Amino acid sequence: MLKTRIVTALVLFCAFLSALFYLPPLGWLVFATLVAAVAAWEWGALMALAGASRVALAGGLALICLSLAALDPTALGLDAGFADAGWRLGRWFYVPSAAFWLLAVPLWLRRRWPLPKSAPGVAIGLLVILPTWLALVQLRQAGALALIAIMAVVWLADIAAYFFGRALGRHKLAPAISPGKTWEGAAGGALAVIVYGLALAPRLPGVLSENFLLLLLVLIVLTAISVMGDLFESLLKRLAGLKDSSNILPGHGGVLDRIDSLTSTLPLVALVWLITAP
Question: For residue 254, is it within any domain?
C-alpha cells in the first residue's frame, strides 16, 4: 500500500509539474478543467447520485468552464489584457467563495448538516469547485513558481500539522469528523505557514510585504480555511458513508481527497492577489 501511494504521488507530481510548466495557457485551462470535471464526478458520489447523474454533473461543469473560456478568454489569460479583465470575472466567483468558507462552513461543521441530494447540493458543489478551477487558471498568470509557492502553503500546513499533532497532540480538534486532527497540530501548521509567509514577504504584492499585521492576518486565515476545507470534505464523506471520494488515484483515494484544502484556500488567495496586485 505504501509503495502504491508513493508511486501514485510521484506520477501525480510529475504530471502536475509538466502541465504547469510546459502547457500553453489553453492547454493549462483544459488540464484544470479535467481536474474540475473529475472533482464534480466525485461530488456526485457525496450526493449519493447514480452513475449517469455523476457523469452528467462532470460534463455540465466542464461545459461551464469551457463556456467561460469562450465568453471571456482575456480574463482567463488566453488573450492579452488579463490585468484588467481578471478581476472583472474573478469577483463573481471569489467573493461568494470567501463568504461560503468564512461564514457558512464553520456553521456547517458545527451543525454537521448532510449534503442535499438535489439542486442545492449541485449548487454547493459548483460553489466549491468552480472558484477553485478559476483560481488555478488565473493564478498561473502570476507564474508557475508563484502557483507552486501558493499551493505549498497548504502542503506545509498539512505536513506541519501532522508532525506537531503526532508529537504534541492532546486536544482533539473535531473528533466527530476527523479524529486524528488536534488543536496542537493546527497551531503547529499555522506556525509553519507564518514562518514560510514571512520568508516570502519581500516577493509578495506591495501592500502585503509592507504591512506586517495584514500579512499575519492573511496567513492565519489561510491556515484556518485550509483546515476547514479538509474537515468539510471529511464530514461529507462521513455522512455519505464513504472512506474516499473515489478510488481513481491508487493509494490516495480521489481528486477531492487531494485538493480538499485547496478548494478553500486557492479562491481566497486569488481574491487577495487580484485586489492587491498593482
Answer: yes
pLDDT in tens, 209-235: 778 888 899 899 999 999 999 999 999
pLDDT at res. 57: 96
Cα(235)–Cα(230) distance, integer angstroms:
9
Q: Residue 43 falls within a domain, yes or no? A: yes
pTM of the model: 0.95
Domain that holds residue 18: 2-76+87-276
CA distance linking residue 63 with residue 89, whole number of Å? 17
The continuous run of DSSP H or E covering 60 comes out as: helix 51-71
127-170 tens-digit pLDDT: 999 999 999 999 999 999 999 999 999 999 999 999 999 898 88
The label of the residue with cell 492565519 reads 220
Q: Is residue 18 part of a domain?
A: yes
Cβ-in-10-Å burial (0-12, 13-18, 19+) of 125 comes to buried
CA 170 centroid distance within chain: 28
Q: What's the domain count of the chain?
A: 1
Residue 106's nearest CA partner among 194, 193, 177, 192 is 177
In contact, 138 and 272? CB cutoff 8 Å: no
Q: What is the pLDDT of residue 187?
A: 93
Cα 100 from Cα 96, distance rounded (Å) = 6
Here the cell at position 40 is 464534480
Q: Is the pLDDT of residue 207 over 80?
A: no
Is 137 within the bounds of a domain?
A: yes
According to DSSP, the β-strands at 178-182 and 172-174 are: antiparallel
